[in-house]
C-alpha cells in the first residue's frame, strides 16, 4: 500500500509540487529563524566558549558577563591558584565604555581588560593585528564590523574612550553580543579607562589541572570563597542563555515565528492531502470494495505523508543551507547545526503524519458501495 | 455458491423508510452466468452491493461460498470481499497511477502475497485475458475493452469463487462488449466461477445461463421474461 500511495502521489505531479513547496517553505521559515536564534545565542556565549577558563569566580549577583554586577577582590586570583586542582588563574576586567566619534557623538562598547602577556580572556577571531600589541600603551582591539560605525577605524587610528586616548592595534570579527561590541585592552589600560581600583577585578578565570574533577574543584573553591559565585563554564553558559531568553524576549518572538511556520506547513499538507482524497474518492472506494481495510488505506496515506515530509524537508534544508551560507555575517549571526537538519526532517514527518489525519478521517467515511453508483 | 433467502433491505426508518429489497430469494451456482435484470431503481444495485459485502441486509439470509453474511461483524466484511468476491465495475475503476500489472497485483498484495509472487500471478492473469503484451501499460493508454479486461483480470486475482459484475458492458461498443462477455462466460463454464452480471444490455442476454428479473425490490422468476425474448 505504501508503494501505491507514493505512485498516486507521483501521478498527480501538480498537487505533489504544491505540497512540497508548502513543506519546503515551512522548513525554510522555521530553520531560518532557528538558525538566527542559535546564532544569537552562540554570539552571546562565544566569549565564555572561547576563553580557556574552566571555572569563573564572579560577584554573587552575576547573571551574565557584562561587568555590571560589581567587583571582587584581586587577591582571589592568588588564593585561587593555591586551591588543589587549579592550574592557573587570571583576572578579568569588564565594563561599559563610550567611544567618542571624530564627528561628534558617541558609541557604546564593552571593554574587556586582559592581563598580558598571557592574555587569558583576550581577543579572538582576530582579522588584523596581534594580541601581543595590547601590551603597547593605550592599545585597544575593536570590532571589525563596526569600523565605519566607529568613524572609519583603521590600524593606528586614535580614539577617545571614556575620556582616555586609545590607539587601535587590531580588529576582531563577529564579537557582537546583545548590546555593545567587545573591545579589548590590557588589564592596566582597561583599569584606567573603567576607573577600577587596583585591588578590584570583575571576574577571575581559572584553568583546571589535568585530571582534576571539575565538580570537586568548584566545591573547594566555593568553600574558599563563600562571598562570591564559583561557576563552571557550563553554568556561566547556561546563565547567559537563560538571561538572554528572559530579558530580550527573542525566545518568545522567534518561537512564535517558528510555530507559525510549522503551522503553515501543517495546514498546507493537511489541505492538500484532504483534497487529494476528495479528488480520488472513487479510487479509494474501489480499494475498499476490493477488500482494503481502513488500516491498509491509513498505511497508504502515511506513506504519502512520509514521502512529502522527507522530500519537502530535504528541499527546504538545501535551500536554507545555501541561504545561510550566503548571507551569514557579523551583523547577521546564523548557525545551522547538523542536528537541526536531522531534527527538521523528524519534525516535518511528525507534522505531515498529523496533517494526514484529516485525509484519513475522510477516507474512513468513504462507503465502498459508492463504486456501484 | 450464492444463496439468498427472504432478503430485505430498508433505507431510513418510520414514514420515510424506503424498501429497496422485499423478501428476495435467489441462488447462483458455480460455473453459471446469472444475469440480474431490471429497470433503474428496481433494487439490482442494492442486491449486488449486499452480495458484494459492501452493504448489510436489514433482514434475511445471504450465504456466500458457505459463509452467512447476516449478522457478520462489519470488520469482517473487507476480508470476505477480498477472499470470496471479485468485482468488475461499470467504469472498470482501475488505479490510473498503476500499470496493468500493478492494478492486478492489488488484491494479491492486500492478501499478503509477496510482490514477486503477485507480479507472476498478475502476468498470467493478464495473458489469460489477452493482455500479456501490455504488462507495463498505464490505463490511460488502453482502450475501453482492454481496461475492462484488466478489471476482469484484477477481479480474478486470488481466484475468488464469485464474480460480481455491475454493467460490465455499458460503456463498451457491441463488439467489445461481446468480447468481455465471452471472457466472463469462459470463466464461469471452464473456471467454475459463479458469475453474477447486473445489466440493462439486452445484447448480452444470450450469454447468460439464467436470468433473474427484479422489479420494485422483488424477484420475478425467469420465465416471466426469458433470456432471448426479454
Comma- or semicolon-separated keywords:
heterodimer; A: 373 residues; 2 domains; 12 strands; B: 230 residues; alpha/beta; Rossmann fold; disordered C terminus
Task: Walk me through the structure.
The complex is a heterodimer of chains A (373) and B (230). By secondary structure, chain A is α+β, with helices and mostly antiparallel strands. Chain A has helices at 2-11, 13-50, 75-81, 187-194, 214-224, 233-248, 250-279, 281-289, 294-327, 338-365, and strands at 55-59, 72-73, 86-100, 106-114, 126-128, 139-143, 158-161, 164-172, 181-186, 200-201, 203-208, 228-232. Chain A folds into two domains: 2-44 and 249-372, no CATH class; 61-226, no CATH class. Chain A contains ten helices and twelve strands. In chain A, the strands form two sheets. Chain A has a six-stranded mixed barrel with strand order 3-4-9-6-8-7. In chain A, strand 7 and strand 8 form a beta hairpin. In chain A, helix 2 runs antiparallel to helix 7, helix 2 crosses helix 9 (294-327) and helix 7 (250-279) packs parallel to helix 10 (338-365). Chain A is elongated, with a radius of gyration of 29 Å. The model of chain A has no long low-confidence stretch (mean pLDDT 89). With 230 residues, chain B is an alpha/beta fold. Chain B has a single domain, classed as Rossmann fold. A six-stranded mixed β-sheet of chain B has the order 6-7-8-3-9-10. A four-stranded antiparallel β-sheet of chain B has the order 2-1-4-5, with helices on one face. In chain B, helix 3 (100-110) packs parallel to helix 5. The longest helix of chain B is centred in the C-terminal third of the chain and has 18 residues, at 174-191. Residues 223-230 of chain B have low confidence and may be disordered. The interface between A and B is medium-sized, with 25 and 27 residues.
